[in-house]
TrEMBL record, chain A:
GO terms for molecular function: DNA binding; sigma factor activity. It comes from Kribbella caucasensis. The keyword Nucleus does not apply. Belongs to the sigma-70 factor family. ECF subfamily. Residues 61-128 form the RNA polymerase sigma-70 region domain. Keywords: DNA-binding, Sigma factor, Transcription, Transcription regulation. This is RNA polymerase sigma factor. Pfam families: Sigma70_r2, Sigma70_r4_2. PROSITE patterns: SIGMA70_ECF. Residues 160-211 form the RNA polymerase sigma factor 70 region 4 type domain. InterPro entries: RNA_pol_sigma-70-like, RNA_pol_sigma-70_dom, RNA_pol_sigma70_ECF_CS, RNA_pol_sigma70_r2, RNA_pol_sigma70_r4_t2, RNA_pol_sigma_r2, RNA_pol_sigma_r3/r4-like, WH-like_DNA-bd_sf. The lineage of its organism: Bacteria, Bacillati, Actinomycetota, Actinomycetes, Propionibacteriales. GO terms for biological process: DNA-templated transcription initiation; response to stress. Signal peptide: none annotated.
TrEMBL record, chain B:
Its main location: membrane. The chain crosses the membrane at residues 108-127. The keyword Transmembrane helix applies. One of its GO terms (biological process) is regulation of translation. Residues 6-36 form the Putative zinc-finger domain. Residues 111-242 form the Anti-sigma K factor RskA C-terminal domain. It comes from the Bacteria. This is Regulator of SigK. Pfam families: RskA_C, zf-HC2. It comes from Kribbella caucasensis. It is a single-pass membrane protein.
Amino acid sequence: MAQTVELGGRSLRMSSRGLSVTEPTAAQWRMRVDPRPPDGIDEGDLMRRVARGDTDAYSTLYDVVAPKVFGLVRRVLRNPAQSEEVTQEVMIDVWRTAGRYDAARGSVQAWILTIAHRRAVDRVRSEQAAADRHQTVGARSAETDFDQVADAVTDRLEAEQVRNCLGTLTELQRESIMLAYYNGLTYPEVAERLDAKLPTIKARMRDGLIRLRDCLGTAGS
Amino acid sequence: MSTSELHTLAGPYVLDALPADERIGFEEHLAYCSACTAEVTRLREAAVKLAANVAVSPPPSLKANVLASIAQLPQSAPAESEQPQPTAPGEGVVLTPRRGFGRLRRGSTLALAAAAVIVAISGGIAIDQYRDNTATTATNNQIAAVLAEPDARTVHGEVKGGGQATVVTSNQRDAAVVVLHDLRTLPASQTYQLWLIDSSQTAHSIGLADATSLTKVVSGGVTGKIAFGLTVEPAGGSAKPTMSGATLISMT
């Protein structure tokens, strides 16, 4: 059975056919190092201060991330009152568990937004019975969402960059990713919605994200 | 599910697009696939950028509420001190002191179900910093689902070097629950590795175990396997099992 281990950024793959070594690409190295923080705010430093109980640092961090947390949760839940409630829970969790943040596992924003997205998705899935879920969600259009997302955005430059990069994806990659991330669908639900095979959707989500990552990693500064 | 199939789940995983059972299975896989963990970290940075596109300022009252809440709220200690403690001896697992490979009666299986759930709660494995109670609940649901299958069967054996291993399998569900209890503590340079062996005597790794007690759900790759194996390997695991000192429990 093949086994892959990672040493110093290189992937060593052992299988019955021997040992192969994969060097990361330049883009992977860049992603491995924490992405550049926007606006000169060192979010890693903020996070360390928050973990030590610094409420001023927390207030700054809140201002940086809360619009994304709230916007994302609202997009998935589509219920303003619930979205405020979940955003509040997430932001309180960030304070409470700040000491658990591990910079080696990703950026501060990735940590917080992962918590937020998972919380929103879990909420939406637990509340919607399978039957009516297919009807209500099935009626939404990913393409419409894509055209309308730019309203009420707080950081237009960053949003525009994401939008441009989404535009470089194939239609199936883009729809798969957006239905999952913005609408909270599982990949089998996405496959049903787009009338595609399950392995296809899984693969498009992955290669779409890789393309998105490469585009975001090189576009702008 | 094969290893390469599992690898493709990194995309849906970072989009939170895996159904609960597959999410748990993939998180188990992440625990011993460092290449997958690295890929998840990279893809996650891209996925969360999508939030920029929908960002909108929350009402100012929300910040006031949050700041008021945290002023009263103590912070958790860092992750190192939050690792779940191994189950204390005699707590949780009530493994029937039974020798050989026979099947347990249905009643015993249900007792074991309750025990496995207790272990999952008290000695669950923390996979990553995002894992929360939802995941624990989902694991318990998965365990219950395996145990509820009409074809669920239980095998049990002593682990060489000390401890007990119990495996509940359902071919119908293509899933298994492995309960390890009271294993000998290994030096940091070594790890336990879990295997399922097929009819051609090939061992397929199903993960590593560093705790002395744990409950693990295996999704996929169970149907048709004839034995469960537990070996002691160098830290990081091995591609093939080290047979000296290996524990093998027949599942047929």
